[in-house]
Amino acid sequence: MDEKKLSYPLDVSTKEALKEIARGIPCLLKLFYRLLRDERTPREVKWWIGGSALYLILPINLKFKKLKRFPLQVLNYIDDVVVVTTMIQRIFKNTPDELLEEHWDHDISLSDWRNLLFKIKTDIQNII
User: Fold this and answer.
1) Is 1 a domain residue?
2) pLDDT score for 7
3) Is residue 80 part of a domain?
4) How far apart are CA 3 and CA 114, in angstroms?
């Protein structure tokens, strides 16, 4: 599903969306593992999955040491959320839908979970 087809804002609060996204993270990790092992997965998707994992485990982060006030320190976390959600959306966009549906095992449909992810990303970008 393209981002253009998503309706924004969704009929769910940001807090509820975050809760549902958090519940789906284990399923997302299983999905990525299964996609990496599946020979039908396009090579570029495997690179995006590897790059996302590398980004998350590397200790490099933007540090605003001179900006010690609370609202400015939040930028350290917001940039991670935006980058990771963008990477996840790129993986979803470039992976055939039948592979995604085959490997997704959450009680929320993949399209609904993706809509929630898009909502959070859009909410954060509107704040910045």
Assistant:
1) no
2) 47
3) yes
4) 9
Long-range contacts of 53-62 (CB under 8 A, 24+ apart): 55/83, 55/84, 55/87, 56/84
Which whole-number Å values give the CA distances from 57 to 31, 53, 54, 80, 85, in the listed order? Answer: 18, 6, 5, 12, 16
CA distances in angstroms from 7 to 11, 17, 111, 121, 122, listed in the order given: 9, 14, 12, 13, 11
| C-alpha–C-alpha distance, residues 31 and 12, integer Å | 25
Residue 97 in domain: yes
18-70 pLDDT, tens digit each: 888 888 889 999 999 999 999 999 999 999 999 888 888 876 655 555 555 65
Amino acid 44 reads: E
For residue 112, give its domain range. 12-127
Q: What is the pLDDT of residues 9-20, one digit of tens each?
A: 567 788 888 888
40 exposure class (CB count in 10 Å sphere: 0-12, 13-18, 19+): exposed
What does the block give as tokens for 67? Answer: 């900006």
Put simply, whether the predicted model's pTM sits higher than 0.85 gets the answer: no
Rounded distance, CA 34 to CA 29, Å? 9
